[in-house]
Amino acid sequence: MLSCFFLSLIVVLTLAGCGSQMPEQKPDTGSLSELQIKAGDETHLFKVELALDESSQARGLMFRRSMAADHGMLFIYDPARPIGMWMKNTILSLDMLFVRRDGTITKIFERTEPFSQKLLGSRQPVYGVLELNGGTVERLGIKPGHRLMHSLLQAQ
Hints:
The protein is an alpha+beta fold. The chain has one domain: Jelly Rolls, CATH 2.60.120.1140. It is built from three helices and nine strands; from the N terminus they run αββαββββββαβ. It has a seven-stranded mixed β-sheet with strand order 6-5-8-3-2-1-9. A two-stranded antiparallel ribbon has the order 4-7. The longest helix is centred in the first third of the chain and has 17 residues. It starts with a helix and ends in a 7-residue tail after the last strand.
């Protein structure tokens, strides 16, 4: 009799978890910062959230269901080092731009696969990663060698 009770309790708890949805992470709009991307002769303006500590970097854009076309998230890693990113718990497809301390884009991953645990790595030391909505890089013609301009990215 007692084992039937525990079995029923397990079934109820399991079913209750099946109906739940991932909590949506809300952007911290109070900490938006301006960033420019110099792509050839054009300059594109974005408003970015900053991921400066381990907690915000681990959370990133997880659970976001949408992001404005001119928004993104800038991750800063001081000191520069090889960085690996993944899409676990990330609903949006993203473009990831890996950058040196001076803002030069060294590597780009376009239209990443949502929820993927595949590691997307810089291979070389980078100081930052900019995440934008998937397709932004192609739409704006952004390429390695172009530069990000932000107060946290400066020529050495």
